[in-house]
Amino acid sequence: MSEPDFDIAILGGGPTGCALALMLARATHRPDRIALFQSDQAASYGYVPEKDPRVLAINHGSRVLLESLKGFPNVAAGIRTIHVSQRGRLGNTLIKHTDFDVPQLGCVVRYGQLHTALRQAVETSGVRIFAGAVAEITGQDSLCVRIDQDQNRVSAAMAVQADGRPGKLADRTYSQMALVTQAKSGLPRSGWAFERFTREGPLAVLPHPEASDQQSIVWCCSPVRAAELQALSADQFSGALTHMFGERLGTLTINGPVTAFPLTLNLNHQLVDGRIVAIGNAAQTLHPVAGQGLNLGLRDAATLAQTLKPWLVNPTRSPIGDLERFQQRRKSDRQVTVRLTDLMSRAFTTGLPQIEHAAGLTLLAMDMFPALRAPLARHLLQGLRA
Ligand SMILES: Cc1cc2nc3c(=O)[nH]c(=O)nc-3n(C[C@H](O)[C@H](O)[C@H](O)COP(=O)(O)OP(=O)(O)OC[C@H]3O[C@@H](n4cnc5c(N)ncnc54)[C@H](O)[C@@H]3O)c2cc1C
């Protein structure tokens, strides 16, 4: 068989695809044999990552990784304390950075600014970028990537699906939407993030990366309620938000558009199909409660880069054994994180007083006994590392 054009083709230049490209570039002396396909500038695609309204809570482990890759944005708001509570019931807990001896538990960044920082780092890494290319894998034996549905193809020894799409029907469609916006707070508290569980779904009020008196809001609620809230005026929306969150930060006044994201859970048990492997949201999508999706995707990318390092020395041999090892190494962390966030998203919305009360007592017990709080907090901070 003739030598393929590339050793590795990465389909999707979102945060996990870019982070993987950077780690692989460091693991090989031939970064030019890695290709990254980014559809985001394709006019036909209609999605501009720089304008994505999401803000992302990045945990301490992910921040350290992104900084080491020089892909961390200049603008970020630190989280030093996380306040977790349940609306209308007893029980709350505080997780503090001092509990773990770290300067911050994590931070909040804009998706667009993270994307730009990673993208700029890839541009100087030696990786070959196909910008504006909507790529698709054709053929398994001689793996080809078809670009923009035309005859333009390149071949690769293996491919990574990092396009953010799980490629199968959802395991669970949450009857929740996430409404994302920003609000000015009357009594700002620097470095505090709040996760408030309500009967409708979790409400996260996070520091805003660009202004200390602003909060980033992720409000999960039923699709019907989301449509009602979106139809409100800014003043009415602010009133409903302050009522739902309570007075901890004074009055919350929204001052940005409200964007709705449908929420689904997907967990691909089979990450590997021959010489094709999935990472990030292409491998799993999860509820945004506790901000775990990207953190998990970055751990996928880091483990894949580490597993492929020996193969990159001699990419003429088959990568299939290494890919299967990767799948095995990622199993526990993916399962635990997906199940934990699924449980957290639903435990407080059952409408069953016994379960909601038990969930509240769990928060209370975690607040009283650090030994109960530590494993959960540590997982959310760093995940399970293989
Ligand atoms: C409301 C909300 C809040 C969230 N908050 C958090 C949080 O606080 N913390 C956290 O860790 N996670 C959070 N997440 C999850 C996080 O956004 C995702 O896990 C993360 O964006 C996944 O990154 P990715 O690179 O795998 O996929 P994506 O971000 O989807 O990027 C995929 C990229 O691939 C490109 N692409 C798609 N198809 C092709 C193709 N055929 N060819 C080439 N390119 C293609 C796309 O244009 C896109 O740029 C949140 C999600 C939501 C919806």
From TrEMBL:
Any one biological process term the GO annotation gives: ubiquinone biosynthetic process
SUPFAM superfamilies associated with the record: FAD/NAD(P)-binding domain
Keyword Chaperone among UniProt keywords: no
The UniProt record lists the keyword Flavoprotein: yes
Pathway membership, UniProt: Cofactor biosynthesis; ubiquinone biosynthesis
Keyword set, alphabetical order: FAD, Flavoprotein, Monooxygenase, Oxidoreductase
The FAD-binding domain, residue ranges: 107-308
An MF annotation (GO) of this entry: 2-octaprenyl-6-methoxyphenol hydroxylase activity
Coiled coil residues, start to end: none
Cofactor(s) the record lists: FAD
Family statement: Belongs to the UbiH/COQ6 family.
The protein, known as: Monooxygenase
Organism name: Sheuella amnicola
